[in-house]
Amino acid sequence: MENKITIYYNPECSKCQTALCSIEERGLQTEIIEYLKDSPTEEDIAGLLKKLGIPARELVRVSEPLFQEMFKDANLTESEWIGVMAKYPILIQRPIIIRGDKAVLGRSKDQLDSIL
């Protein structure tokens, strides 16, 4: 298994902080992408979705106030949701942990352990 890990990271998020600590404890080479500063493109998000194996709507943070204000009742296509996340990266679930051609949402210890 590839040793390099990429994490889509928000330094304000406790789940991201926990995931990064777990990665660092294992001594794995880590690339940190602060996705709120370095927003992913639509192509980046489509690639993440492929690695995650989920539809775009499942990557959207429905608890975000922005989602509740603007997208709560939206019935968007896959590409439209990808466009929304590219425009408003705060709506992307976090942390996303990538290793090789696989990725997980590292919100739980089990999800994180499955890729580390």
Could you explain the architecture of this structure?
With 116 residues, this protein is α+β, with helices and mostly antiparallel strands. The protein is built from 5 helices and 4 strands.
Topology of helices and strands:
Elements: E1 5-9, H1 14-25, E2 30-34, H2 42-52, H3 65-70, H4 78-87, E3 96-99, E4 102-105, H5 109-115
Parallel strand pairs: 1-2
Antiparallel strand pairs: 1-3, 3-4
Essential attributes:
globular, alpha+beta, four-stranded mixed β-sheet, 5 helices, single chain, 4 strands, about 120 residues, about 15% strand
| Helix and strand pattern | EHEHHHEEH
Query: Which sequence of strands runs across the widest sheet?
Result: 2-1-3-4
Average pLDDT over all residues: 94
Helix content: 25-40%
Largest sheet: 4 strands, mixed
Assembly type of the shown chains?
single chain
DSSP summary, beta strand count: 4
Instruction: Briefly note the structural class of the backbone.
Output: alpha+beta
Beta-strand percentage range: 15-25%
Which regions have little confidence, pLDDT < 50, spanning 5+ residues? Answer: none
